[in-house]
Specification:
The complex is a heterodimer.
Chain A lengths: L1 H31 L18 H10 L2 E5 L4 E5 L5 E5 L2 H28 L2 H5 L4 H10 L1 H12 L3 H19 L4 H6 L8 H16 L3 H11 L17 H4 L4 E3 L9 H5 L15 H7 L9 E7 L10 E9 L7 E9 L2 E10 L8 E4 L2 E7 L5 E5 L7 E4 L2 E4 L1 E7 L7 E7 L5 E4 L2 E7 L7 H10 L3 H8 L7 E7 L4 E5 L6 E3 L2 E3 L4 E3 L31 E3 L3 E4 L22 H15 L6 H8 L5 H11 L7 H8 L13 H22 L12 H5 L19 H19 L4 H4 L1 E2 L15 E2 L10 E2 L6 E3 L2 E4 L5 E4 L17 H5 L4 E3 L6 E8 L5
Parallel strand pairs in A: 1-32, 3-7, 11-22
Antiparallel strand pairs in A: 2-3, 2-32, 4-23, 5-6, 5-24, 6-28, 6-29, 7-8, 8-9, 9-10, 10-18, 11-17, 12-13, 14-15, 16-17, 18-19, 19-23, 20-21, 25-26, 27-28, 29-30, 30-31
Chain B lengths: L6 H8 L3 H18 L1 H14 L3 H26 L2 H5 L3 H17 L7
Helix pairs in contact in B: 1-2, 2-3, 2-4, 3-4, 3-6, 4-6
Classes of the chains: A alpha+beta, B mainly alpha.
Chain lengths: 832, 113
């Protein structure tokens, strides 16, 4: 009897534990149980080189997939790069869609959810604010407009086939781990989703609310206006500093002064954007172009190269994410021995084309212009439901959408639009937003054209269709042609018949500054009177060499492109030009290896500018601080991992900016995101009033502030236990999911925000060279991404390029179709 | 022997073929445990019912879970992803832990029957 009671107790306990497990951990058990766990689906077939995969391929051949558009074959090489050959463009696009979904489906889904305002449905209430913003902006409607613009073109056909390829994968293959971890399934891909990814890229590069930010500074700290000049003080403008070539640009524009502009600004009475706009700006700032998004590219003609053919270098500095922003691919379309496409480079997952790269005839790369592509409008509002527009009272267009929220209550959002675009409001302040990308744009066609280009004339034709985003393109062709242009369209803003810049909030009620022929969510007349003549947009034919690093385009541009807040500090651009100049002056030929060295250059022109300022200030320092500062005498500005000097300088730089501006900006309610650029700080005279700390009775000079910043830098170094730059400059890239195993391993790297080899450590999402490429003709090109090709955690290509990227190494690439056949697409027999 | 134990079950446990019965239950349990996590529990129940003693039931459940885990590890080795699985942290622990615990707890039925 005692045994029975004991036995029953044991059974009862076991049963109770099982019930508790089932109730509280049933989902986790479904996820992680051995063999059957949903998390392990992506583990099978993730490693092409495994025993099982080799046996399976030998026994049954590669994976077979039916392709409605024709035959295609996918081979993955040793780096996980797909080499896709297809019999026609649509068969290719279908295969690309399938492969993108195989390797990056969660990333693709995340991107479209972000832009469509659907994150909350998958991730819960934490994403509601983001969804609200993106729905109010109406990016999905803008993507629909772009789809309308391209659907009846070859690009549209390609996007449709790509969409089917993505959905074939979604329908038939195991979903990535992330979907399992978060317990949701992706909806089917749609053509508009591809255009939505294009909008995401364009918005991240050109969408900003700088005008509101600038107005906020002017209202709160009017004495700071000199810190935001129209042009930064440097002589490294892209076009002006270029060597050789034919510069084509309209005559220099004359613009009204800021004082003259003041009378043309937002309405003085009744407008809702005439006062302090900090709250509005700060509610919008998280969704705008992040500071620090920049890039390098340069082209050197055959006149200066050892090979006699041009070389193109490009490294776009975007957010360093897990998985990487870019996906490398090699696409070949060949029918009956005739090859119509052979292009290799990187794509954004979600788009069926190579965005940066080269084909056998042409190589090209992009950097951001920094152009002003967003204008803001304020209105007189006779009532809550109406606004005044050119003397007429108009209804605000209002619709209500429901944001589904996972594990929470749905949220309703009211979408408001005016004739100029979405109306955004915060604490009584409001503006309507015209962002160029809110209309139907044809960049998908433009990029496709680049993939097929045979010379720089074709490049010129292709980029004519890149209405957005505004990019510096450098290109070269096999026959020696070189090329530069700022892509995109540049709106003409007029007030009372006078052309004005777009760096203010306009009086929308008076119709000031609006872009003729442009309609939000509609089709624009890009060649009409609302935009500057495409032929006058700055471009250079056959430059000897030309470098872009987000510095201003020209000293005297033919029209308003942007002012200094839109452009980068000149340090990287100046450094690239200096190195190219020196190489040419020495009569040393430019080689691929030299281009790689420049791309990995870690000498900071900013450090060289700040160093004498530090050394001139040592008299104001305490002995211990002075001793540390004097150690920088031998510092050559090289931001290398092992350098103690680089560490001290990097810490000093940020303390110095804060020590200079905090006492004025903080009381005005402005944080460091409002501070002026570093080159502006470096150029302040030693007796500038900005160095006087308003909180103290003494009058401080630059030396006092340098001494203070150096002391703070030393204290920080001590507190954080930092010894060398390697301890500070740590690459720490994390997956969007809070699962530590999905993050990339942490390790240090060279470079800083102002070196050509670019890495920005102090950001929410670190940024840097998201793809390093040096493209040549006739010899292998090189490239590398910061991470790996596959987003599948189980793949050997999850992060296999990260260490080489950190160490500044490259992987060679050619047009050889390499690797074992992994996927064979068989002709499904439908009409093509 | 519990009052709830059917005589037929007692015969199976104590008969000449008791080890074969237990072995059969074990194999069926491995298959079930590879299909779904509930199968791990069901497999444990099967070996528990077939085991001649409570101690043997628990051990059989544990071995059953261990075998499923071993097969899983072997399959991951063959597909070349074992190392990645091992590095998954909590998910690794959960898969290993559930594999060993669920059948063992299922086998606890032997205490009552």
């Amino acid at each position: 009897m005692r045994d029975d009671i004991f036995g029953a107790a044991v059974t009862g306990t076991c049963a109770a534990l099982l019930v508790v497990s089932a109730v509280f951990a049933g989902g986790f058990l479904s996820l992680a149980a051995p063999v059957s766990g949903e998390a392990w689906g992506p583990a099978y077939g993730a490693n092409d080189g495994s025993v099982a995969d080799t046996v399976a391929r030998t026994a049954t051949g590669p994976t077979q997939v039916e392709n409605p558009y024709g035959e295609a074959t996918v081979r993955y090489d040793d780096d996980g790069v797909p080499h896709i050959t297809a019999s026609n463009e649509r068969a290719m696009a279908f295969a690309v869609g399938y492969v993108h979904a195989r390797d990056r489906l969660f990333q693709m889904d995340l991107q479209r959810r972000l832009m469509a305002g659907n994150l909350s449905a998958a991730f819960g209430a934490q994403a509601v604010a983001s969804d609200r913003f993106h729905r109010k902006m109406g990016f999905e409607d803008a993507a629909r407009a772009s789809w309308e613009a391209v659907r009846d073109t070859e690009s549209g056909d390609s996007i449709s086939a790509y969409t089917e390829g993505v959905n074939r994968y979604v329908d038939t293959r195991p979903l990535p781990l992330e979907f399992r971890l978060n317990d949701y399934e992706p909806t089917r891909w749609d053509e508009v989703d591809t255009l939505l990814v294009g909008k995401l890229i364009a918005w991240q590069l050109t969408g900003d609310f700088r005008d509101v930010q600038q107005q906020t500074v002017e209202r709160r700290l009017p004495e700071a206006s000199d810190l935001y000049p129209r042009q930064l003080d440097h002589d490294s403008a892209i076009v002006d500093r270029a060597v050789g070539g034919e510069v084509v640009a309209g005559g220099a524009a004359s613009m009204p002064t800021d004082a003259e502009r003041a009378s043309l600004d937002a309405p003085a009475d009744g407008g809702r954007a005439v006062g302090d706009m900090r709250a509005l700006y700060e509610s919008l700032a998280p969704y705008q172009t992040e500071p620090g998004i920049g890039s390098n590219s340069w082209v050197v003609s055959g006149e200066y190269t050892e090979s006699g053919t041009p070389i193109v270098a490009n490294d776009p500095h975007l957010g360093l994410t897990v998985p990487p922003v870019w996906y490398e691919q090699h696409l070949v379309v060949e029918d009956a021995g005739e090859r119509s496409l052979d292009v290799r480079g990187v794509a954004f997952p979600g788009l069926p084309v190579v965005v940066i790269g080269q084909n056998r005839d042409v190589a090209w790369g992009f950097t951001n212009v920094g152009a002003d592509q967003t204008d803001l409008y304020s209105y007189v509002r006779p009532s809550e439901d109406t606004y005044l527009y050119e003397g007429e009272e108009r209804e605000i267009e209002r619709t209500t959408e429901t944001i589904p929220v996972k594990d929470g209550e749905d949220v309703e959002v009211t979408i408001e639009r005016t004739v100029h675009g979405p109306l955004l409001e915060r604490e009584g302040e409001e503006v309507a937003v015209s962002w160029l990308g809110l209309a139907g744009t044809r960049e998908a066609q433009g990029i496709r054209g680049l993939n097929y280009a045979e010379d720089v004339d074709d490049v010129d034709d292709a980029v004519r269709l890149m209405d957005s985003p505004t990019q510096n393109i450098v290109a070269a062709d096999r026959d020696g042609g070189t090329y530069f242009r700022i892509t995109g369209r540049y709106p003409i803003r007029t007030v009372d018949g006078e052309t004005v810049p777009g760096n203010r909030v306009f009086n929308g009620s008076a119709g000031h500054g609006e872009w003729q022929g442009w309609e939000p969510y509609g089709q624009a007349d890009w060649d009409g009177p609302g935009f500057h003549d495409y032929e006058t947009v700055p471009h250079v034919r056959n430059p000897g060499y030309l470098a872009t690093a987000n510095q201003r385009t020209m000293d005297d541009p033919p029209f308003y492109i942007s002012y200094s807040p839109g452009y980068a500090d000149p340090y990287r651009g100046a450094r690239i030009y200096n190195r190219l100049d020196r190489q040419v002056e020495r009569d040393e030929p430019v080689t691929r290896e030299f281009m790689q060295q420049v791309q990995r250059d870690v000498r900071s022109a900013a450090a060289q500018q700040f160093k004498p300022i530090i050394l001139d200030s040592t008299d104001a320092m305490q002995p211990e601080t002075r001793a540390a500062a004097l150690e920088l005498e031998d510092f050559r500005g090289r931001m290398r991992q092992g350098s103690e000097d680089a560490l001290l300088y990097a810490l000093f730089r940020d303390h110095y900016r804060n020590a200079t501006f905090y006492d004025e900006y903080h009381p005005a309610g402005l944080d460091e995101s409002y501070y002026p650029k570093y080159s502006t700080l470096a150029g302040l005279p030693a007796d500038s009033e900005w160095f006087d700390d308003e909180r103290t009775p003494e009058t401080e000079t630059r030396a006092d502030i340098v001494a203070r910043a150096m002391r703070l830098a030393l204290e920080e170094r001590e507190e954080r236990g930092l010894e060398t730059y390697a301890d500070y400059n740590v690459v720490d890239l994390n997956h969007p999911f809070p699962v530590a195993a999905l993050d990339y391993p942490e390790a240090s790297t060279d470079g800083s925000l102002f070196t050509v080899s670019n890495f920005r450590v102090n950001r929410g999402t670190q940024a840097g060279s998201s793809w390093r490429m040096v493209a040549t003709f006739g010899s292998p090109s090189v490239g590398i991404i910061p991470g790996g090709q596959s987003a599948n955690y189980f793949s050997p290509h999850y992060a296999d390029q990260l260490d080489e990227w950190r160490e500044g190494e490259y992987r060679e690439f050619t047009f050889e179709v390499a690797g074992k056949r992994a996927i064979v697409f068989e002709d499904g027999g439908e009409d093509q | 022997m519990s009052l709830l134990t059917p005589a037929a079950l007692t015969d199976l446990r104590e008969g000449d073929r008791s080890e074969i019965v237990l072995g059969g239950a074990f194999l069926v349990g491995v298959v079930l445990g590879s299909v779904h996590w509930v199968g791990l529990v069901a497999g444990g129940v099967l070996v528990g019912l077939a085991a001649p003693s409570l101690r043997r039931a628990f051990l059989s459940g544990l071995y059953l879970g261990g075998t499923v885990l071993l097969l899983f590890a072997l399959s991951l080795l063959l597909v070349g992803t074992f190392g990645r699985w091992a590095g998954l942290g909590q998910l690794t622990l959960l898969s290993g832990g559930s594999s060993l615990l669920l059948p063992t707890l299922g086998a606890g039925i032997r205490g009552l029957v």
